[in-house]
Specification:
The protein has 19 helices and twelve strands. A hairpin with a 5-residue loop joins strand 1 and strand 2. It is elongated and about 125 Å long. Helix content is 58%, strand content 11%. Helix 5 runs antiparallel to helix 6 and helix 6 crosses helix 10. It folds into four domains: 140 residues, no CATH class; 126 residues, no CATH class; 107 residues, 2-Layer Sandwich (Beta-Lactamase), CATH 3.30.450.20; 159 residues, 2-Layer Sandwich (Alpha-Beta Plaits). It is an enzyme of class 2 (transferase). Pfam families: GGDEF (PF00990), MASE1 (PF05231), PAS_4 (PF08448). GO terms for molecular function: diguanylate cyclase activity. Keywords: Cell membrane, Membrane, Transmembrane, Transmembrane helix.
Amino acid sequence: MSRFSLRSPQSPFAPVITGCVYFAAASFTVSISRFEGGLAFIWIANAFLMAELLTTRTSYWPRAVVACAIASAIATALFGIGPVAAAPMALINVSESLIVAVICRSLLKEDVVTGSFKPLVVFILALCGVADIVTGVAAAAVASATTPVGFSASWLQWYSGHALGGLTCTPVVILLLQGEWSRWLRDTPKAVKIEAIILLALFTLVTVHVFYWARYPMLFAPMLPLVLIAFRVGHIGAAASIVILAVIGGVATMSDTGPLMLIPLSTGERVLAFQFYLALSFLLSMPVAAELNGRRRLFQMLQESESRFRAIAEHSGDVVLNISLAGTVEYASPSAQDMIGCAPALLVGQSVTELADAQDREAVRTIHAQALAQPGSVQQAEFRPLTALSDLDCCEMVSRAVVDERGQPVGVVSMIRDISRHKARQRALQQVAAHDALTGADSRRAFLDKLDAEMLRAADGARSCLLLIDLDHFKSVNDRYGHGGGDRVLTGFVQRILPELRDGDSIGRLGGEEFAILLADCDRRDASQLCDRLRQRLAAPISVNDQADTIAVTFSAGLVQLNGGSTRSAMLEAADRALYDAKHSGRNCLRLAA
Protein backbone atom coordinates (compact mmCIF):
# COMPACT_ATOMS: atom_id res chain seq x y z
CA MET A 1 0.00 0.00 0.00
CA SER A 2 1.47 3.35 -1.05
CA ARG A 3 2.16 5.77 1.76
CA PHE A 4 0.93 9.37 1.59
CA SER A 5 3.67 11.94 1.01
CA LEU A 6 3.50 15.67 1.68
CA ARG A 7 2.86 17.98 -1.25
CA SER A 8 5.25 20.79 -2.11
CA PRO A 9 3.51 23.17 -4.55
CA GLN A 10 6.12 24.71 -6.85
CA SER A 11 3.87 26.87 -8.98
CA PRO A 12 4.09 30.62 -8.23
CA PHE A 13 0.30 30.71 -8.57
CA ALA A 14 -0.26 28.12 -5.79
CA PRO A 15 -0.51 30.72 -2.97
CA VAL A 16 -2.84 32.82 -5.13
CA ILE A 17 -5.13 29.84 -5.66
CA THR A 18 -5.00 29.04 -1.93
CA GLY A 19 -5.92 32.64 -1.09
CA CYS A 20 -8.77 32.70 -3.60
CA VAL A 21 -10.30 29.48 -2.28
CA TYR A 22 -10.01 30.80 1.28
CA PHE A 23 -11.60 34.14 0.28
CA ALA A 24 -14.49 32.37 -1.45
CA ALA A 25 -15.17 30.13 1.56
CA ALA A 26 -14.86 33.01 4.04
CA SER A 27 -17.02 35.39 2.02
CA PHE A 28 -19.71 32.77 1.49
CA THR A 29 -20.00 31.75 5.15
CA VAL A 30 -19.86 35.35 6.43
CA SER A 31 -22.56 36.42 3.97
CA ILE A 32 -25.04 33.70 4.93
CA SER A 33 -24.44 33.16 8.65
CA ARG A 34 -24.08 36.55 10.43
CA PHE A 35 -27.54 36.36 11.92
CA GLU A 36 -27.01 38.57 14.98
CA GLY A 37 -24.55 41.19 13.70
CA GLY A 38 -21.52 39.54 15.28
CA LEU A 39 -19.27 36.74 14.16
CA ALA A 40 -20.35 34.16 11.59
CA PHE A 41 -22.15 31.11 12.95
CA ILE A 42 -20.63 28.95 10.19
CA TRP A 43 -16.91 29.00 9.35
CA ILE A 44 -15.30 26.53 6.95
CA ALA A 45 -12.49 28.70 5.52
CA ASN A 46 -10.04 27.70 8.24
CA ALA A 47 -10.85 24.05 7.57
CA PHE A 48 -9.40 24.55 4.09
CA LEU A 49 -6.26 26.27 5.46
CA MET A 50 -5.74 23.52 8.08
CA ALA A 51 -6.05 20.87 5.38
CA GLU A 52 -3.59 22.80 3.20
CA LEU A 53 -1.01 23.04 6.00
CA LEU A 54 -1.41 19.40 7.03
CA THR A 55 -0.86 18.09 3.50
CA THR A 56 2.05 20.33 2.41
CA ARG A 57 5.65 20.73 3.48
CA THR A 58 6.47 23.43 6.01
CA SER A 59 8.43 25.32 3.33
CA TYR A 60 5.08 26.19 1.72
CA TRP A 61 3.42 27.32 4.95
CA PRO A 62 4.54 31.00 4.94
CA ARG A 63 3.14 31.59 1.44
CA ALA A 64 -0.13 29.84 2.25
CA VAL A 65 -0.55 31.66 5.58
CA VAL A 66 0.14 35.09 4.07
CA ALA A 67 -2.27 34.46 1.19
CA CYS A 68 -5.04 33.31 3.53
CA ALA A 69 -4.42 36.18 5.95
CA ILE A 70 -4.88 38.69 3.13
CA ALA A 71 -8.00 36.84 1.95
CA SER A 72 -9.42 36.80 5.50
CA ALA A 73 -8.79 40.53 5.96
CA ILE A 74 -10.55 41.39 2.67
CA ALA A 75 -13.54 39.12 3.43
CA THR A 76 -13.89 40.55 6.95
CA ALA A 77 -13.66 44.15 5.67
CA LEU A 78 -16.17 43.63 2.85
CA PHE A 79 -18.69 41.20 4.33
CA GLY A 80 -17.83 40.80 8.01
CA ILE A 81 -17.49 43.07 11.02
CA GLY A 82 -15.63 45.82 9.17
CA PRO A 83 -12.22 47.15 8.16
CA VAL A 84 -11.21 47.96 11.74
CA ALA A 85 -11.30 44.29 12.74
CA ALA A 86 -9.97 42.96 9.43
CA ALA A 87 -6.28 42.78 10.35
CA PRO A 88 -6.63 41.33 13.88
CA MET A 89 -9.27 38.82 12.74
CA ALA A 90 -6.98 37.73 9.89
CA LEU A 91 -4.15 37.11 12.36
CA ILE A 92 -6.47 35.16 14.67
CA ASN A 93 -7.84 33.03 11.82
CA VAL A 94 -4.45 31.92 10.52
CA SER A 95 -3.23 31.39 14.11
CA GLU A 96 -5.97 28.81 14.67
CA SER A 97 -4.88 26.82 11.63
CA LEU A 98 -1.18 27.12 12.52
CA ILE A 99 -1.75 25.89 16.08
CA VAL A 100 -3.57 22.80 14.84
CA ALA A 101 -0.96 22.08 12.16
CA VAL A 102 1.99 22.48 14.54
CA ILE A 103 0.43 20.22 17.20
CA CYS A 104 -0.43 17.50 14.69
CA ARG A 105 3.00 17.58 13.07
CA SER A 106 4.70 17.46 16.48
CA LEU A 107 2.72 14.55 17.90
CA LEU A 108 2.19 12.41 14.81
CA LYS A 109 4.96 10.46 13.09
CA GLU A 110 2.77 9.91 10.06
CA ASP A 111 1.95 12.72 7.67
CA VAL A 112 -1.83 12.22 7.60
CA VAL A 113 -4.61 12.95 10.08
CA THR A 114 -7.25 10.77 8.44
CA GLY A 115 -7.42 7.10 7.70
CA SER A 116 -6.47 5.88 11.19
CA PHE A 117 -7.80 6.45 14.69
CA LYS A 118 -4.91 8.03 16.60
CA PRO A 119 -4.15 10.87 14.13
CA LEU A 120 -7.86 11.72 13.99
CA VAL A 121 -8.08 11.95 17.80
CA VAL A 122 -4.97 14.17 17.92
CA PHE A 123 -6.53 16.47 15.33
CA ILE A 124 -9.81 16.71 17.24
CA LEU A 125 -8.04 17.51 20.52
CA ALA A 126 -5.74 20.06 18.86
CA LEU A 127 -8.68 21.84 17.25
CA CYS A 128 -11.32 21.68 19.98
CA GLY A 129 -9.12 21.44 23.05
CA VAL A 130 -6.43 24.00 22.26
CA ALA A 131 -6.69 26.10 19.10
CA ASP A 132 -10.33 27.21 19.27
CA ILE A 133 -10.21 27.90 23.00
CA VAL A 134 -7.12 30.12 22.69
CA THR A 135 -8.07 31.94 19.50
CA GLY A 136 -11.69 32.22 20.64
CA VAL A 137 -10.66 34.51 23.50
CA ALA A 138 -8.81 36.85 21.11
CA ALA A 139 -11.64 36.78 18.55
CA ALA A 140 -14.26 37.48 21.20
CA ALA A 141 -12.25 40.44 22.47
CA VAL A 142 -12.11 41.94 18.96
CA ALA A 143 -15.76 41.18 18.20
CA SER A 144 -17.09 42.57 21.49
CA ALA A 145 -15.17 45.80 20.87
CA THR A 146 -16.42 46.29 17.31
CA THR A 147 -19.96 44.79 17.38
CA PRO A 148 -22.96 44.97 19.73
CA VAL A 149 -22.53 41.28 20.66
CA GLY A 150 -20.98 40.66 24.10
CA PHE A 151 -17.76 38.79 24.87
CA SER A 152 -19.37 35.51 26.02
CA ALA A 153 -21.76 35.31 23.07
CA SER A 154 -18.96 36.19 20.64
CA TRP A 155 -16.70 33.49 22.12
CA LEU A 156 -19.50 30.92 21.82
CA GLN A 157 -20.17 31.92 18.19
CA TRP A 158 -16.49 31.66 17.35
CA TYR A 159 -15.88 28.37 19.16
CA SER A 160 -18.97 26.60 17.84
CA GLY A 161 -18.64 27.84 14.27
CA HIS A 162 -14.90 27.14 13.98
CA ALA A 163 -14.80 23.88 15.95
CA LEU A 164 -17.82 22.37 14.21
CA GLY A 165 -16.80 23.65 10.80
CA GLY A 166 -13.25 22.37 11.24
CA LEU A 167 -14.38 18.97 12.48
CA THR A 168 -16.75 18.31 9.62
CA CYS A 169 -14.84 19.86 6.72
CA THR A 170 -11.10 19.48 7.38
CA PRO A 171 -10.92 15.66 7.05
CA VAL A 172 -13.00 15.82 3.88
CA VAL A 173 -10.72 18.44 2.32
CA ILE A 174 -7.62 16.49 3.41
CA LEU A 175 -8.90 13.40 1.64
CA LEU A 176 -9.41 15.52 -1.47
CA LEU A 177 -5.99 17.21 -1.35
CA GLN A 178 -4.04 14.01 -0.76
CA GLY A 179 -5.78 12.24 -3.60
CA GLU A 180 -7.75 9.70 -1.56
CA TRP A 181 -10.93 10.30 -3.55
CA SER A 182 -9.28 9.73 -6.95
CA ARG A 183 -7.28 6.80 -5.59
CA TRP A 184 -10.46 5.18 -4.28
CA LEU A 185 -12.18 5.63 -7.65
CA ARG A 186 -9.16 4.20 -9.47
CA ASP A 187 -8.32 1.22 -7.25
CA THR A 188 -11.66 0.10 -5.85
CA PRO A 189 -13.31 -2.93 -7.51
CA LYS A 190 -16.48 -2.25 -9.48
CA ALA A 191 -18.67 -4.30 -7.15
CA VAL A 192 -17.54 -2.25 -4.16
CA LYS A 193 -18.22 0.99 -6.04
CA ILE A 194 -21.73 -0.15 -6.88
CA GLU A 195 -22.37 -1.07 -3.24
CA ALA A 196 -21.06 2.35 -2.13
CA ILE A 197 -23.31 4.17 -4.60
CA ILE A 198 -26.36 2.22 -3.42
CA LEU A 199 -25.59 2.92 0.25
CA LEU A 200 -24.93 6.63 -0.38
CA ALA A 201 -28.14 6.89 -2.42
CA LEU A 202 -30.04 5.27 0.45
CA PHE A 203 -28.43 7.67 2.89
CA THR A 204 -29.35 10.64 0.67
CA LEU A 205 -32.95 9.47 0.48
CA VAL A 206 -33.18 9.04 4.26
CA THR A 207 -31.62 12.48 4.85
CA VAL A 208 -34.00 14.20 2.42
CA HIS A 209 -36.90 12.46 4.09
CA VAL A 210 -35.80 13.54 7.57
CA PHE A 211 -35.20 17.20 6.68
CA TYR A 212 -37.99 17.79 4.11
CA TRP A 213 -40.74 15.19 4.23
CA ALA A 214 -40.97 13.75 7.73
CA ARG A 215 -43.80 15.00 9.91
CA TYR A 216 -41.98 14.00 13.08
CA PRO A 217 -38.42 14.79 14.28
CA MET A 218 -36.31 11.85 13.08
CA LEU A 219 -32.75 13.10 13.34
CA PHE A 220 -31.70 9.66 14.52
CA ALA A 221 -32.78 8.00 11.26
CA PRO A 222 -29.63 8.84 9.21
CA MET A 223 -27.40 7.30 11.88
CA LEU A 224 -28.06 3.69 10.85
CA PRO A 225 -27.07 4.06 7.18
CA LEU A 226 -24.22 6.35 8.27
CA VAL A 227 -22.71 3.66 10.48
CA LEU A 228 -23.37 1.03 7.81
CA ILE A 229 -21.50 3.13 5.25
CA ALA A 230 -18.59 3.58 7.67
CA PHE A 231 -18.32 -0.19 8.04
CA ARG A 232 -18.81 -1.15 4.41
CA VAL A 233 -17.16 1.70 2.48
CA GLY A 234 -14.65 3.05 4.99
CA HIS A 235 -13.46 6.58 5.66
CA ILE A 236 -14.12 7.71 2.09
CA GLY A 237 -17.75 6.68 2.39
CA ALA A 238 -18.06 8.26 5.84
CA ALA A 239 -16.63 11.54 4.54
CA ALA A 240 -19.01 11.50 1.57
CA SER A 241 -21.92 10.89 3.93
CA ILE A 242 -20.95 13.88 6.08
CA VAL A 243 -20.85 16.07 2.96
CA ILE A 244 -24.29 14.87 1.91
CA LEU A 245 -25.70 15.42 5.39
CA ALA A 246 -24.11 18.89 5.61
CA VAL A 247 -25.46 20.02 2.24
CA ILE A 248 -29.02 18.69 2.63
CA GLY A 249 -29.40 19.47 6.32
CA GLY A 250 -27.62 22.82 6.07
CA VAL A 251 -29.77 24.07 3.19
CA ALA A 252 -32.92 22.89 4.99
CA THR A 253 -31.97 24.57 8.25
CA MET A 254 -30.99 27.84 6.55
CA SER A 255 -34.35 27.73 4.72
CA ASP A 256 -36.25 27.31 8.01
CA THR A 257 -37.20 23.75 7.08
CA GLY A 258 -36.67 20.46 8.85
CA PRO A 259 -36.94 18.97 12.34
CA LEU A 260 -34.88 21.76 13.97
CA MET A 261 -37.73 24.18 13.26
CA LEU A 262 -39.62 22.53 16.11
CA ILE A 263 -37.07 24.04 18.53
CA PRO A 264 -38.07 27.59 19.61
CA LEU A 265 -34.70 29.18 18.79
CA SER A 266 -33.34 31.92 16.56
CA THR A 267 -31.97 31.06 13.12
CA GLY A 268 -28.42 31.41 14.37
CA GLU A 269 -29.07 29.09 17.28
CA ARG A 270 -30.70 26.56 14.94
CA VAL A 271 -27.60 26.70 12.73
CA LEU A 272 -25.45 26.04 15.79
CA ALA A 273 -27.72 23.14 16.76
CA PHE A 274 -27.42 21.67 13.26
CA GLN A 275 -23.63 22.03 13.32
CA PHE A 276 -23.59 20.27 16.67
CA TYR A 277 -25.71 17.47 15.18
CA LEU A 278 -23.36 17.33 12.19
CA ALA A 279 -20.32 17.15 14.49
CA LEU A 280 -21.89 14.29 16.46
CA SER A 281 -22.54 12.47 13.20
CA PHE A 282 -18.90 13.05 12.24
CA LEU A 283 -17.67 11.75 15.60
CA LEU A 284 -19.89 8.70 15.23
CA SER A 285 -18.77 7.75 11.74
CA MET A 286 -15.25 9.05 11.01
CA PRO A 287 -13.41 7.57 14.03
CA VAL A 288 -15.12 4.22 13.42
CA ALA A 289 -14.23 4.38 9.74
CA ALA A 290 -10.66 5.43 10.57
CA GLU A 291 -10.24 2.52 12.98
CA LEU A 292 -11.64 0.09 10.43
CA ASN A 293 -9.36 1.55 7.77
CA GLY A 294 -6.38 1.09 10.09
CA ARG A 295 -7.39 -2.51 10.69
CA ARG A 296 -7.73 -3.08 6.94
CA ARG A 297 -4.22 -1.73 6.45
CA LEU A 298 -2.93 -3.92 9.26
CA PHE A 299 -4.68 -6.95 7.79
CA GLN A 300 -3.20 -6.22 4.37
CA MET A 301 0.26 -5.81 5.89
CA LEU A 302 -0.19 -9.10 7.73
CA GLN A 303 -1.22 -10.81 4.50
CA GLU A 304 1.82 -9.41 2.69
CA SER A 305 4.08 -10.38 5.60
CA GLU A 306 2.59 -13.85 5.66
CA SER A 307 3.17 -14.22 1.92
CA ARG A 308 6.79 -13.13 2.25
CA PHE A 309 7.30 -15.41 5.23
CA ARG A 310 5.86 -18.40 3.38
CA ALA A 311 7.95 -17.70 0.29
CA ILE A 312 11.12 -17.47 2.37
CA ALA A 313 10.28 -20.45 4.56
CA GLU A 314 9.29 -22.75 1.71
CA HIS A 315 12.36 -22.03 -0.42
CA SER A 316 15.07 -21.25 2.12
CA GLY A 317 17.87 -23.68 2.82
CA ASP A 318 17.62 -22.72 6.51
CA VAL A 319 15.05 -24.32 8.77
CA VAL A 320 12.30 -21.88 9.79
CA LEU A 321 10.35 -22.62 12.96
CA ASN A 322 7.28 -21.08 14.59
CA ILE A 323 7.57 -21.74 18.32
CA SER A 324 4.90 -21.22 20.97
CA LEU A 325 5.36 -19.38 24.25
CA ALA A 326 5.92 -22.73 25.93
CA GLY A 327 8.70 -23.64 23.49
CA THR A 328 6.72 -26.10 21.35
CA VAL A 329 7.28 -26.22 17.59
CA GLU A 330 4.09 -25.15 15.77
CA TYR A 331 5.51 -25.01 12.24
CA ALA A 332 8.66 -26.31 10.58
CA SER A 333 9.73 -25.49 7.03
CA PRO A 334 10.37 -28.25 4.46
CA SER A 335 14.15 -27.71 4.67
CA ALA A 336 14.10 -29.55 8.01
CA GLN A 337 14.07 -32.80 6.03
CA ASP A 338 17.24 -31.91 4.13
CA MET A 339 19.18 -30.28 6.96
CA ILE A 340 18.48 -32.36 10.03
CA GLY A 341 16.98 -35.43 8.41
CA CYS A 342 13.59 -35.10 10.10
CA ALA A 343 10.22 -34.59 8.43
CA PRO A 344 8.61 -31.24 9.37
CA ALA A 345 5.42 -32.96 10.49
CA LEU A 346 7.38 -34.94 13.07
CA LEU A 347 8.80 -31.76 14.59
CA VAL A 348 5.40 -30.14 15.17
CA GLY A 349 4.35 -30.59 18.78
CA GLN A 350 7.88 -31.33 19.98
CA SER A 351 9.89 -29.08 22.28
CA VAL A 352 12.44 -27.03 20.36
CA THR A 353 15.11 -28.09 22.83
CA GLU A 354 14.78 -31.67 21.56
CA LEU A 355 16.56 -30.58 18.39
CA ALA A 356 19.78 -29.97 20.31
CA ASP A 357 22.24 -32.31 21.93
CA ALA A 358 21.61 -32.74 25.65
CA GLN A 359 24.66 -30.59 26.51
CA ASP A 360 23.39 -27.66 24.41
CA ARG A 361 19.70 -27.67 25.30
CA GLU A 362 20.10 -25.04 27.98
CA ALA A 363 21.49 -22.60 25.39
CA VAL A 364 18.43 -23.14 23.16
CA ARG A 365 16.09 -22.76 26.13
CA THR A 366 17.88 -19.56 27.18
CA ILE A 367 17.60 -17.73 23.85
CA HIS A 368 13.91 -18.68 23.64
CA ALA A 369 13.29 -17.12 27.05
CA GLN A 370 15.38 -14.04 26.17
CA ALA A 371 13.50 -13.50 22.91
CA LEU A 372 10.20 -13.49 24.83
CA ALA A 373 11.58 -11.25 27.58
CA GLN A 374 13.02 -8.71 25.09
CA PRO A 375 10.60 -8.38 22.14
CA GLY A 376 12.29 -6.72 19.20
CA SER A 377 15.73 -8.11 20.01
CA VAL A 378 17.44 -10.91 18.09
CA GLN A 379 18.90 -13.80 20.10
CA GLN A 380 21.53 -16.22 18.80
CA ALA A 381 22.98 -19.50 20.02
CA GLU A 382 25.09 -22.31 18.62
CA PHE A 383 24.29 -25.95 19.32
CA ARG A 384 25.06 -29.44 18.18
CA PRO A 385 22.03 -31.18 16.67
CA LEU A 386 20.67 -34.29 18.33
CA THR A 387 19.88 -36.01 15.05
CA ALA A 388 21.37 -34.81 11.82
CA LEU A 389 22.87 -35.85 8.54
CA SER A 390 26.48 -37.03 8.60
CA ASP A 391 28.06 -33.72 7.52
CA LEU A 392 26.13 -31.56 9.99
CA ASP A 393 27.84 -31.12 13.33
CA CYS A 394 27.03 -27.53 14.35
CA CYS A 395 24.00 -25.28 13.94
CA GLU A 396 23.17 -21.67 14.72
CA MET A 397 19.71 -20.63 15.90
CA VAL A 398 18.49 -17.04 15.49
CA SER A 399 15.27 -16.20 17.35
CA ARG A 400 12.96 -13.19 17.54
CA ALA A 401 9.63 -12.78 19.31
CA VAL A 402 6.34 -12.30 17.46
CA VAL A 403 4.20 -9.64 19.14
CA ASP A 404 0.51 -8.72 18.99
CA GLU A 405 -1.01 -5.26 18.50
CA ARG A 406 -0.27 -4.43 22.16
CA GLY A 407 3.39 -5.34 21.80
CA GLN A 408 3.04 -8.52 23.88
CA PRO A 409 4.90 -11.64 22.67
CA VAL A 410 2.70 -14.42 21.33
CA GLY A 411 5.42 -16.73 20.08
CA VAL A 412 8.88 -16.89 18.54
CA VAL A 413 10.17 -17.27 14.99
CA SER A 414 13.52 -19.06 14.78
CA MET A 415 15.86 -19.83 11.91
CA ILE A 416 18.35 -22.67 12.09
CA ARG A 417 21.28 -22.67 9.70
CA ASP A 418 24.11 -25.12 9.14
CA ILE A 419 27.41 -23.56 10.25
CA SER A 420 29.46 -26.77 10.16
CA ARG A 421 31.72 -25.55 7.36
CA HIS A 422 32.10 -22.17 9.02
CA LYS A 423 33.11 -23.78 12.30
CA ALA A 424 35.54 -26.08 10.48
CA ARG A 425 37.18 -23.11 8.79
CA GLN A 426 37.23 -21.30 12.10
CA ARG A 427 38.93 -24.23 13.80
CA ALA A 428 41.44 -24.46 10.95
CA LEU A 429 42.25 -20.78 11.25
CA GLN A 430 42.60 -21.11 14.99
CA GLN A 431 44.90 -24.06 14.48
CA VAL A 432 47.04 -22.05 12.06
CA ALA A 433 47.08 -19.05 14.37
CA ALA A 434 48.07 -21.21 17.34
CA HIS A 435 51.26 -22.54 15.72
CA ASP A 436 54.36 -21.00 14.29
CA ALA A 437 54.26 -21.52 10.53
CA LEU A 438 57.99 -22.31 10.26
CA THR A 439 58.79 -24.55 13.23
CA GLY A 440 55.42 -25.96 14.27
CA ALA A 441 55.92 -24.70 17.82
CA ASP A 442 53.14 -22.75 19.53
CA SER A 443 52.76 -19.17 18.37
CA ARG A 444 53.64 -16.42 20.83
CA ARG A 445 49.96 -15.68 21.57
CA ALA A 446 49.03 -19.34 22.01
CA PHE A 447 52.00 -19.94 24.31
CA LEU A 448 51.22 -16.92 26.47
CA ASP A 449 47.62 -18.12 26.79
CA LYS A 450 48.92 -21.47 28.05
CA LEU A 451 51.25 -19.65 30.42
CA ASP A 452 48.28 -17.71 31.84
CA ALA A 453 46.40 -20.96 32.41
CA GLU A 454 49.43 -22.49 34.12
CA MET A 455 49.75 -19.41 36.35
CA LEU A 456 46.22 -20.09 37.58
CA ARG A 457 47.18 -23.68 38.37
CA ALA A 458 50.26 -22.42 40.18
CA ALA A 459 48.03 -20.17 42.27
CA ASP A 460 46.21 -23.34 43.38
CA GLY A 461 49.48 -25.00 44.42
CA ALA A 462 50.72 -26.68 41.24
CA ARG A 463 54.49 -26.63 40.63
CA SER A 464 55.49 -25.60 37.11
CA CYS A 465 58.52 -24.03 35.47
CA LEU A 466 59.19 -21.64 32.60
CA LEU A 467 62.33 -22.07 30.51
CA LEU A 468 63.47 -19.30 28.14
CA ILE A 469 65.91 -20.46 25.45
CA ASP A 470 68.02 -18.47 23.01
CA LEU A 471 70.14 -20.18 20.32
CA ASP A 472 73.79 -19.21 20.61
CA HIS A 473 75.43 -17.23 17.79
CA PHE A 474 72.38 -17.59 15.55
CA LYS A 475 73.20 -14.42 13.63
CA SER A 476 76.38 -16.02 12.32
CA VAL A 477 74.31 -18.91 10.94
CA ASN A 478 72.18 -16.50 8.93
CA ASP A 479 75.24 -14.61 7.77
CA ARG A 480 77.06 -17.75 6.60
CA TYR A 481 74.23 -19.92 5.26
CA GLY A 482 71.50 -17.35 4.60
CA HIS A 483 68.02 -17.22 6.04
CA GLY A 484 67.18 -20.56 4.46
CA GLY A 485 69.91 -22.19 6.49
CA GLY A 486 68.76 -20.34 9.60
CA ASP A 487 65.19 -21.60 9.06
CA ARG A 488 66.47 -25.17 8.86
CA VAL A 489 68.31 -24.74 12.14
CA LEU A 490 65.19 -23.38 13.87
CA THR A 491 63.06 -26.20 12.50
CA GLY A 492 65.62 -28.85 13.41
CA PHE A 493 65.94 -27.43 16.91
CA VAL A 494 62.22 -27.79 17.60
CA GLN A 495 62.15 -31.31 16.13
CA ARG A 496 64.98 -32.35 18.49
CA ILE A 497 63.22 -30.81 21.50
CA LEU A 498 59.70 -32.20 21.04
CA PRO A 499 60.47 -35.87 21.88
CA GLU A 500 61.74 -34.86 25.33
CA LEU A 501 58.53 -32.99 26.25
CA ARG A 502 55.76 -34.73 28.17
CA ASP A 503 52.02 -34.44 27.74
CA GLY A 504 51.08 -31.10 29.19
CA ASP A 505 54.42 -29.47 28.34
CA SER A 506 54.55 -26.80 25.61
CA ILE A 507 57.19 -25.14 23.47
CA GLY A 508 56.55 -21.80 21.83
CA ARG A 509 58.50 -19.52 19.55
CA LEU A 510 58.47 -16.04 21.04
CA GLY A 511 60.35 -14.45 18.15
CA GLY A 512 63.46 -14.94 16.03
CA GLU A 513 65.70 -17.55 17.69
CA GLU A 514 64.05 -17.17 21.10
CA PHE A 515 61.91 -20.03 22.41
CA ALA A 516 60.07 -20.79 25.64
CA ILE A 517 59.22 -24.12 27.20
CA LEU A 518 56.45 -24.52 29.75
CA LEU A 519 56.97 -27.53 32.04
CA ALA A 520 53.83 -28.51 33.93
CA ASP A 521 54.06 -30.28 37.29
CA CYS A 522 57.80 -29.89 37.35
CA ASP A 523 60.13 -28.28 39.90
CA ARG A 524 63.43 -26.55 39.20
CA ARG A 525 65.53 -29.68 39.76
CA ASP A 526 63.56 -31.74 37.25
CA ALA A 527 63.56 -28.78 34.84
CA SER A 528 67.35 -28.50 35.09
CA GLN A 529 67.71 -32.19 34.32
CA LEU A 530 65.42 -31.77 31.29
CA CYS A 531 67.63 -28.94 30.08
CA ASP A 532 70.66 -31.25 30.24
CA ARG A 533 68.86 -33.90 28.20
CA LEU A 534 67.98 -31.29 25.61
CA ARG A 535 71.65 -30.40 25.24
CA GLN A 536 72.45 -34.05 24.63
CA ARG A 537 69.82 -34.28 21.90
CA LEU A 538 71.40 -31.27 20.21
CA ALA A 539 74.86 -32.82 20.24
CA ALA A 540 74.39 -34.18 16.74
CA PRO A 541 74.82 -31.43 14.09
CA ILE A 542 71.80 -30.08 12.18
CA SER A 543 71.76 -29.97 8.37
CA VAL A 544 71.56 -26.42 7.00
CA ASN A 545 71.27 -27.03 3.23
CA ASP A 546 71.00 -29.63 0.50
CA GLN A 547 74.82 -29.80 0.15
CA ALA A 548 75.06 -31.81 3.39
CA ASP A 549 76.50 -28.89 5.33
CA THR A 550 75.80 -29.23 9.04
CA ILE A 551 76.25 -27.13 12.13
CA ALA A 552 76.36 -27.84 15.85
CA VAL A 553 73.79 -25.88 17.84
CA THR A 554 73.95 -24.80 21.46
CA PHE A 555 71.61 -22.68 23.51
CA SER A 556 71.55 -20.49 26.58
CA ALA A 557 68.62 -20.82 28.97
CA GLY A 558 66.97 -19.04 31.90
CA LEU A 559 64.74 -20.99 34.28
CA VAL A 560 62.09 -19.74 36.72
CA GLN A 561 59.59 -21.64 38.81
CA LEU A 562 56.11 -20.15 38.45
CA ASN A 563 54.81 -18.19 41.40
CA GLY A 564 51.02 -18.16 41.49
CA GLY A 565 51.02 -14.98 43.50
CA SER A 566 52.91 -13.06 40.84
CA THR A 567 52.05 -12.07 37.26
CA ARG A 568 52.89 -13.42 33.85
CA SER A 569 55.01 -10.38 33.05
CA ALA A 570 57.00 -10.79 36.25
CA MET A 571 57.72 -14.46 35.45
CA LEU A 572 58.85 -13.63 31.93
CA GLU A 573 61.10 -10.85 33.20
CA ALA A 574 62.64 -13.16 35.81
CA ALA A 575 63.34 -15.86 33.21
CA ASP A 576 64.71 -13.23 30.82
CA ARG A 577 67.16 -11.95 33.46
CA ALA A 578 68.34 -15.50 34.07
CA LEU A 579 68.77 -15.96 30.31
CA TYR A 580 70.79 -12.74 30.18
CA ASP A 581 73.05 -14.09 32.90
CA ALA A 582 73.54 -17.30 30.93
CA LYS A 583 74.56 -15.38 27.80
CA HIS A 584 77.09 -13.35 29.74
CA SER A 585 78.46 -16.42 31.45
CA GLY A 586 79.90 -17.88 28.28
CA ARG A 587 76.65 -19.17 26.68
CA ASN A 588 75.64 -22.83 26.33
CA CYS A 589 74.52 -22.91 29.94
CA LEU A 590 71.50 -22.65 32.22
CA ARG A 591 70.91 -20.04 34.89
CA LEU A 592 68.17 -20.06 37.50
CA ALA A 593 66.15 -16.99 38.34
CA ALA A 594 66.72 -15.60 41.80
